[in-house]
Q: What sequence folds into this?
């Protein structure tokens, strides 16, 4: 009898298995509103599309406070779709539509979709695919940053040139005029940087620049303090240059240029790199020297063009004397910055940042060649009254202009990628990035550790997560694939997933715009050591 | 002998029943149960493609204790077998010593990948371990152009078929993840796989009566 019963159950089981061998958890295929959609008006309907018929447990829309909104009707099932009416208009803002349903295999499955009404919401697809700077706003950011760098250094450099060089009157007039224009343009770029930068940080759509959120985001980042320092410095310079050479005030020009340069020391990878007591002065020296050189090109060319040869020779000799020290300081400070940012010489050609830096160094070396020719060949020729040397000098300076444009472009491109030094810093936290707040934790699973950090850990911004995996010997572990699944039990939210992008071996980068409700978010990190060895790390993250 | 066989058979039946009615994985084995120590034709099913992409590569990890694995040639797919060493060697059939075995079977570069709403089977033959009651987990990963769909999750605690809560624990595991590894539960076979290994007792167990003439033939 017992044997009969055993065979009966086994046979019954087999029969069922043959009849329905392939149940599976339900998979969300799409939704209305779509994930990351930015709607102009409040939705009237909420639809979740699954790959199979499901039974809803709950469907709700939450606002940024975690409160249920939308006055949803009872849900209905239409084929594989679950839908409900949204009876109350949603004010402009960002929302999470969340669901929990029963799969055909009787297991509950939950997930969430973020959408926005009347404002931009980031594209998660873009974020996870390229790790951050992926919106179209990166182009305006880069262009504006190029203008900002060039104009700020031209303005600060003009002040230094006016203080340190003696040039013919008309040339000095042009230096003041150039300085005033450059300072004005630079001030405008500082303001635009807040909007462009904020739109980029939010990975916003075409109208994001006009959104208060973007400006708030920009102001809340390091761009805010930079503008708050830089713009007063530039206003001082505009005032000082406005007085003309006859009203020249060395202390005011020095003050304005120092404040303007200082605005670059509160943002960016280089100036904020540790140790700050060393790097900030080094970067300041680098900026002062570069500014002086850049600002000198126009008055030198004008001198070579308008002044007589002997006078031009005297100015060039004077500039050459100062340039020796300027170039020396530029070279030394540049070497310190390079060494600090690269951490290792091999990173010069093995990392994106390193390659961009290598291009900048190559152009700088070419520029040095031109400068050397000017000093060794053309300046002595001018002193001897060789008129042809004046023409050659102007031509040489044109090449220097081009080289400077390329160098500034390279410098701007460096700001768009993370230096190897910063990625190392991020392994131990976010200290080197000049980012505030956030949350860090070291998680352990077996012989593996995961250094987890999130910045800023706030509901009002895109949250960047960096995770570095190491083995018990402290060596980076090159995971095949890493995913994070977020849930917020207090709000019944779950199933917010993101896939990591590898930054360096063992280090993964994520961006999350869905953490819009404050609370204790739970993160489950699935890290694949190889195809089949998955290590699961868990942590609870306070999001404010 | 009867009691363990009963427990194993009933438990396997219950698990398969539970699995079939409530919780099979996305990727799955067509043989949710199989006789231990049998040379068995297995089929791993990929239940669907990735969301936006076709599956273009499938990898199956062969569990420990499974030997003599031969992938079936699958039309329109290239088949590869990665090997691993068996250390120390184990005794195989016919007194041979097994020093290496298939670690992973890879089907790749298909003429056409597996779209989201289609399933496809991948067959291989393998000698299953002589461990009735063991749950064999066949970890699988589906590779798409720019994403992976892994079915690799294992229970944190080994599932013991003799555990009175085996069914509940198995179901809890299946419900705890969307990516469980496909499995096959081994049960004790009523008799050896090949007819020439059957004894009169085996024949009797399956209700066959040995006739005198057969007895005579057997005696010869």
A:
């Amino acid at each position: 009898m017992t044997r009969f019963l055993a065979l009966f159950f086994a046979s019954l089981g087999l029969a069922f298995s043959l009849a329905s061998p392939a149940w599976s958890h339900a998979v969300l295929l799409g939704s209305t509103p779509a994930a990351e959609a930015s709607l102009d008006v409040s939705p009237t309907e909420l639809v979740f599309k699954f790959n199979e018929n499901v039974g809803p447990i709950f469907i709700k829309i939450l606002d940024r406070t975690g409160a249920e909104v939308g006055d949803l009707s009872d849900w209905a099932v239409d084929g594989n779709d679950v839908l409900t009416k949204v009876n109350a208009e949603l004010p402009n803002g960002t929302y999470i539509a969340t669901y929990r349903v029963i799969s055909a295999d009787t297991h509950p499955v939950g997930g969430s979709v973020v959408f926005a009404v009347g404002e931009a919401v980031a594209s998660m697809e873009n974020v996870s695919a390229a790790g951050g700077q992926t919106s179209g706003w990166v182009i305006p950011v880069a262009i504006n940053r190029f203008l900002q760098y060039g104009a700020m250094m031209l303005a600060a450099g003009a002040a230094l040139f006016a203080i340190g060089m003696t040039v013919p009157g008309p040339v000095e007039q042009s230096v003041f005029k150039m300085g005033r224009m450059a300072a004005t343009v630079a001030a405008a770029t500082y303001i635009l940087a807040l909007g462009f930068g904020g739109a980029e940080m939010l990975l916003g759509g075409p109208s994001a620049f006009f959104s208060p959120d973007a400006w708030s985001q920009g102001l809340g980042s390091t761009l805010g303090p930079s503008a708050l320092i830089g713009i007063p410095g530039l206003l001082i310079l505009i005032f000082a240059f406005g007085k003309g050479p006859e009203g020249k005030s060395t202390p005011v020009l020095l003050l304005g240029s120092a404040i303007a340069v200082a605005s670059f020391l509160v943002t960016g990878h280089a100036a904020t790199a540790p140790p700050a007591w060393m790097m900030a002065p080094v970067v300041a020296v680098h900026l002062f020297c570069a500014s002086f050189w850049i600002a000198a090109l126009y008055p030198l060319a004008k001198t070579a063009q308008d002044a007589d040869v002997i006078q031009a020779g005297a100015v060039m000799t004077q500039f050459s004397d100062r340039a020796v020290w300027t170039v020396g300081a530029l070279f030394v400070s540049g070497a310190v910055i390079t060494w600090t940012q690269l951490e290792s010489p091999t990173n010069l050609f093995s990392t994106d940042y390193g390659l961009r830096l290598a291009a900048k160094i190559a152009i700088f070396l070419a520029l040095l060649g031109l400068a050397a020719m000017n000093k060794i060949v053309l300046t002595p020729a001018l002193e001897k009254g060789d008129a042809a040397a004046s023409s050659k000098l102007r031509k040489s300076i044109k090449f220097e202009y081009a080289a400077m444009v390329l160098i500034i472009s390279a410098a701007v491109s460096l700001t768009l990628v993370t230096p190897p030094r910063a990625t190392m810093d991020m392994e131990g936290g976010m200290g080197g990035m000049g980012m505030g707040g956030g949350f860090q934790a070291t998680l352990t699973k077996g012989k593996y550790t995961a250094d987890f950090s999130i910045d800023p850990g706030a509901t009002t911004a895109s949250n960047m997560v960096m995770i570095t995996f190491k083995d018990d010997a402290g060596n980076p572990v090159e995971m095949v694939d890493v995913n994070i699944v977020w849930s917020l039990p207090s709000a019944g939210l779950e199933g917010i997933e993101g896939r990591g992008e590898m930054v360096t071996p063992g280090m993964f980068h994520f961006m999350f715009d869905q953490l819009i409700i404050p609370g204790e978010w739970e993160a489950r990190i699935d890290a694949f050591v190889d195809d089949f060895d998955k290590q699961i790390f868990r942590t609870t993250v306070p999001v404010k | 002998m009867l009691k363990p066989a009963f427990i194993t058979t009933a438990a396997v039946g219950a698990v398969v029943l539970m699995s079939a009615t409530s919780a099979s994985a996305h990727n799955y084995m067509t043989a949710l149960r199989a006789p231990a120590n049998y040379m068995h034709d297995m089929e791993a099913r990929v239940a669907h493609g990735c969301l936006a992409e076709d599956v273009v590569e499938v990898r199956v990890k062969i569990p420990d204790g499974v030997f003599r694995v031969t992938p079936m040639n699958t039309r329109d797919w290239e088949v590869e077998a990665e090997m691993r060493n068996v250390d120390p060697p184990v005794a195989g059939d016919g007194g041979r010593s097994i020093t290496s075995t298939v670690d992973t079977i890879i089907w790749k570069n298909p003429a056409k990948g597996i779209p989201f709403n289609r399933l496809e089977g991948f067959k291989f033959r393998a000698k299953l371990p002589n461990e009735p009651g063991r749950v064999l987990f066949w970890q699988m990963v589906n590779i798409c152009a720019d994403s992976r769909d892994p079915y690799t999750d294992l229970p944190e605690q080994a599932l013991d078929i003799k555990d009175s809560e085996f069914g509940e624990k198995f179901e809890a595991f299946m419900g705890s993840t969307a990516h469980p590894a496909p499995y096959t539960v081994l049960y004790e076979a009523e008799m050896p796989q090949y007819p020439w290994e059957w004894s009169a007792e085996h024949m009797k167990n399956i209700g066959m009566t040995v006739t005198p003439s057969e007895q005579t033939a057997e005696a010869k």
User: Anything to note?
Assistant: Chain B touches chain A at residues 2, 5-6, 9-10, 12-26, 28, 30, 32-33, 45, 47-48, 51, 59, 61, 104, 116-117, 119, 139, 141, 147-148, 150, 152-153, 174-175, 178, 187 (CB under 8 Å). The two ends of chain B are 30 Å apart (CA to CA).
